[in-house]
């Protein structure tokens, strides 16, 4: 029996664990548990008020994007992933991931409530701004097949749809588009601005790095267990999804930073997007497409490792709520 399956009576016994990577990620996710109000975001209000209009626009734009899309990811997990796998260790991880997406949504609400941001403008942007709406339409198109139609996971086409959905959400949305936004959000701390907001984003990134790792592992497991999916045509389709997503992100970033801010402009972000896309392509077994260097080498820790240590803060952002879950974790004061 493989990881795919829809039987209600299947997957009710956790041990012996079949997919150790899923259990390990669950244990790490539990150890990473945090709450947004642990961070004194109000201390950043003075920074926000003295920033330029363009800089405040960037923060508002990011909140406009992240807030609804964290909830969209939850729908993708609940309707497009959870019902189609039968390994209990994977279900445990997905349950924790869904809580984390909810926690991220509330974290961005905390930002909207703390900073002097026009909430209506922020909420409406994902509909009113064409480049942002286009990205959302791209994602919604994949999950509609899961929610409005019946997916037959026993067929090759059904399994391919399952993979398409994972690529759309785990690889593109969380692994490229979200990381692009994380880089912009964390760039302010590079200039000693919004340091507490930066700590909040550190914790979000740490969660998302596990989400990405789970999604990549799940895709590779399904492909390994179902070799009939490994056709040149399907591989080309998946690669095109990712390159199309890069083009959409480039347009979005032109709206995010139309004039640029200190140390950051759309071309800088888009080079980072292409760097991210190459990493994701390689993780899926493809050759890199863009062959660009990482312009934001200061993001390497967030992008390439699961542990974040923020040397700019008095707080160690890699704290773990359960130090026994893995070595080296320290409980935050």
UniProtKB/TrEMBL annotation:
<keyword id="KW-0215">Deoxyribonucleotide synthesis</keyword>
<dbReference type="Pfam" id="PF00268">
    <property type="entry name" value="Ribonuc_red_sm"/>
</dbReference>
<comment type="similarity">
    <text>Belongs to the ribonucleoside diphosphate reductase small chain family.</text>
</comment>
<dbReference type="InterPro" id="IPR012348">
    <property type="entry name" value="RNR-like"/>
</dbReference>
<comment type="subunit">
    <text>Tetramer of two alpha and two beta subunits.</text>
</comment>
<dbReference type="InterPro" id="IPR033909">
    <property type="entry name" value="RNR_small"/>
</dbReference>
<keyword id="KW-0479">Metal-binding</keyword>
<comment type="function">
    <text>Provides the precursors necessary for DNA synthesis. Catalyzes the biosynthesis of deoxyribonucleotides from the corresponding ribonucleotides.</text>
</comment>
<keyword id="KW-0472">Membrane</keyword>
<keyword id="KW-0408">Iron</keyword>
<dbReference type="GO" id="GO:0004748">
    <property type="term" value="F:ribonucleoside-diphosphate reductase activity, thioredoxin disulfide as acceptor"/>
</dbReference>
<feature type="transmembrane region" description="Helical">
    <location>
        <begin position="166"/>
        <end position="188"/>
    </location>
</feature>
<dbReference type="InterPro" id="IPR000358">
    <property type="entry name" value="RNR_small_fam"/>
</dbReference>
<keyword id="KW-1133">Transmembrane helix</keyword>
<keyword id="KW-0560">Oxidoreductase</keyword>
<protein>
    <recommendedName>
        <fullName>Ribonucleoside-diphosphate reductase subunit beta</fullName>
        <ecNumber>1.17.4.1</ecNumber>
    </recommendedName>
</protein>
<keyword id="KW-0812">Transmembrane</keyword>
<dbReference type="InterPro" id="IPR009078">
    <property type="entry name" value="Ferritin-like_SF"/>
</dbReference>
